[in-house]
TrEMBL record:
<dbReference type="InterPro" id="IPR017925">
    <property type="entry name" value="DHFR_CS"/>
</dbReference>
<dbReference type="InterPro" id="IPR012259">
    <property type="entry name" value="DHFR"/>
</dbReference>
<comment type="similarity">
    <text>Belongs to the dihydrofolate reductase family.</text>
</comment>
<keyword id="KW-0554">One-carbon metabolism</keyword>
<dbReference type="InterPro" id="IPR024072">
    <property type="entry name" value="DHFR-like_dom_sf"/>
</dbReference>
<dbReference type="GO" id="GO:0070401">
    <property type="term" value="F:NADP+ binding"/>
</dbReference>
<dbReference type="InterPro" id="IPR001796">
    <property type="entry name" value="DHFR_dom"/>
</dbReference>
<comment type="pathway">
    <text>Cofactor biosynthesis; tetrahydrofolate biosynthesis; 5,6,7,8-tetrahydrofolate from 7,8-dihydrofolate: step 1/1.</text>
</comment>
<dbReference type="GO" id="GO:0006730">
    <property type="term" value="P:one-carbon metabolic process"/>
</dbReference>
<dbReference type="GO" id="GO:0005829">
    <property type="term" value="C:cytosol"/>
</dbReference>
<keyword id="KW-0521">NADP</keyword>
<dbReference type="GO" id="GO:0046452">
    <property type="term" value="P:dihydrofolate metabolic process"/>
</dbReference>
<protein>
    <recommendedName>
        <fullName>Dihydrofolate reductase</fullName>
        <ecNumber>1.5.1.3</ecNumber>
    </recommendedName>
</protein>
<dbReference type="GO" id="GO:0046654">
    <property type="term" value="P:tetrahydrofolate biosynthetic process"/>
</dbReference>
<keyword id="KW-0560">Oxidoreductase</keyword>
<comment type="function">
    <text>Key enzyme in folate metabolism. Catalyzes an essential reaction for de novo glycine and purine synthesis, and for DNA precursor synthesis.</text>
</comment>
<feature type="domain" description="DHFR">
    <location>
        <begin position="7"/>
        <end position="167"/>
    </location>
</feature>
Length: 171
């Protein structure tokens, strides 16, 4: 299914309960996480589902946008966005991009989790309310490669940590 893709990674921010969304948006405001997202996804393909695309609402600079949807029409998308109907079509991009970044939402995370090499997690030290969650993942199958904790400040109202996890056997 993923022939030729060197690294299929996901980037996600979630709270203590792995909450990732509320009403098709983020349940928090955390500028440091947005900056971190920008740095990690810069000049890489970002792969998202329809709802994530609609919540972002625009093409992000210096990234290759791939939207997975069975219902969106390509005519309704910006010309800089590639629409795919099946996950298997990701392999067509593999030759040019050694790392592809899954950026959400919940259904896409669930579908790709078994194939991920790396997880970039922003763990927010709060319990918030919302309606979309990152799927369960067994941390015994992963190795924490890096973790940087940050305290809340005037711009970022919650303590958080940036973590990089690699699937055991891929370290």
């Amino acid at each position: 299914m993923w022939a030729g893709i060197e690294r299929l990674s996901a980037i996600v921010a979630y709270d203590k309960n792995q909450l990732i969304g509320k009403e098709n948006g983020l349940p928090w405001r955390l500028p440091a996480d947005l900056k971190h997202f920008r740095e990690l996804t810069w000049q890489k393909p970002i792969v998202m589902g329809k709802n994530t695309w609609q919540s972002i609402g625009r093409v992000l600079p210096e990234r290759i946008h791939i939207v997975l949807s069975r219902t969106l029409r390509s005519e309704s998308l910006d010309s800089r966005v590639t629409l795919i109907r099946e996950l298997a079509h990701l392999s067509t991009f593999a030759a040019n991009y050694p790392e592809m970044m899954i950026i959400g939402g919940a259904q896409l995370y669930q579908a790709t989790l078994p194939y991920l090499h790396t997880l970039y997690v922003t763990e927010i030290q709060a319990e918030l309310t919302g309606d979309a969650y990152f799927p369960y993942w067994d941390k015994k199958e992963w190795q924490l490669v890096e973790s940087k904790a940050h305290q809340a400040d005037e711009l970022n109202p919650y303590p958080y940590s940036f973590q990089e996890w690699r699937r055991v056997g891929n370290v």
